[in-house]
Amino acid sequence: MLNPRRIYTSLLWLLLPYVFFHLAWRARKQPEYLKHVGERFGFYPVSSNKPVIWLHTVSVGETRAAASLVQHLRAAYPGHQLLLTHTTPTGRAASEQLYGDRVLRVYLPYDYPFAVQRFLRHFQPRIGILLETEIWFNLIHGCRMEHIPLLLLNARLSEKSAARYGHYPNLTRQGLNELSGVAAQTEEDAARLSSLGARNVAVMGNLKYDIAPPAAMLALGNQLRAQFGAGRPIFLAASTREGEEELLLTALRELETTPMLTVIVPRHPQRFDEVANLLTRHGIRFQRRSSNLPIETTTQVVLGDSMGEMFAYYAACDLALIGGSLLPFGGQNLIEACSVGKPVLIGPHTYNFAQASLQAVASGAAVRVQDVSELAQSVRDLLCQPERLTEIGSAGLTFVNANRGATAQAVALISRAWNAPA
């Protein structure tokens, strides 16, 4: 019987020409994709003279979610070097902004055996930690062959993703069985992973609840609020995705009589100019955050074209819509807004944060809207009810505090895996 991982690897080799096309295609809007290309094939210009703890955080969300874990690992293992690997340039940039030179950062190699082997033998990590849904079969097998404990932590697996992995049951089971440990965010995630073949799956909660709003960002939020105009209600559309800005402009037309300022922060920086052009085509009077100028009273929209300031935007607003939820992108992280004590609106599509969204709505920390008309109505109603806004924001703080503790669980799992017999 053919080894399923070898079939998988053969297919990867067939896709190799596409890898270069993909990098070139992404570089059209984000030139950073053409930087550090050698790292994606296992060639690294940096190394460590300390033993390495390796943590893989794909992009911005995972990199920010890892903040509390990074802090605890640095405190628990001061003689070790933390290595963060990323997949996207925005994840790498977020790492630079959050952690500076306190960590090493490189791209994770593509899942070719030669690239994986070069990576593992170059850095020789004492332990590896994959966050969320990073199941790379040659990487997992390579760690097993090099006797490197590898954990999948903060794991989440939607029904859609579970069905996709279920099409390749032998490959998926083989990969999950080679992990040293798996800890899921929720009971539902754990059940899906177990059904695919993962063994002894623990439930640890979600690291995103343990993120503390940085004091510097809260201070910047106060500055932004003064810059935006202390007397105007501020409606924030956070981490918007393709097509959602058009829907927001429809909602704004229904809110023309509401004396508010709207702040739109696209999820991906390569879309900043695209959204600016959209606002221009619609005749919207807007200013860019990057201009750092006082906001004029006639300005309708501020385009949040800055990186790493989301906590500041939350601190500056009165009401926040979480992007990625108006259209079927699965929703972005609503926990950050709740942790700042701000009332949250979410759309119908929140499968990326399914349990958190359900709990937030049930606890009064968030209000779900089904379409643009409901969004416009909710914004109009809530901005006229300061007491209601305060009530929802307070419920958000309670909701976040009740779900903290995943970092301690993760550190305990890492310690056990580290000390387990080979």
Report the total helices: 19
Q: Give the overall shape.
A: globular
Order the strands across the largest sheet as they lie in space.
Answer: 3-2-1-4-5-6-7
Query: Which structural class is indicated by helix and strand composition?
Result: alpha/beta
CATH architecture of the largest domain: 3-Layer(aba) Sandwich
Radius of gyration: 22 Å
Largest sheet: 7 strands, parallel
Poorly predicted spans = none
CATH superfamily of the largest domain: 3-Deoxy-D-manno-octulosonic-acid transferase, N-terminal domain
* CATH class category label of the largest domain: Alpha Beta
**Mean pLDDT over the residues:** 94
CATH topology of the largest domain: Rossmann fold
Number of separate strands: 14
Helix content: 40-55%
Strand content: 5-15%
For the termini, the CA-CA separation is 29 Å
**Total separate domains:** 2
Structure commentary:
It is a single chain. 46% of the residues lie in helices and 15% in strands. The strands form two sheets. Strands 3-2-1-4-5-6-7 form a seven-stranded parallel β-sheet, with helices on both faces. Strands 10-11-9-8-12-13-14 form a seven-stranded parallel β-sheet, sandwiched between helices. The chain has helices spanning 4-14, 16-27, 60-65, 67-76, 89-99, 113-123, 137-145, 159-166, 169-177, 187-195, 215-228, 244-254, 272-281, 310-316, 335-339, 354-362, 372-383, 386-402, 406-419; strands at residues 52-56, 81-86, 104-107, 125-131, 150-155, 181-184, 202-203, 234-240, 261-266, 286-288, 301-303, 319-322, 344-346, 366-368. It is globular.
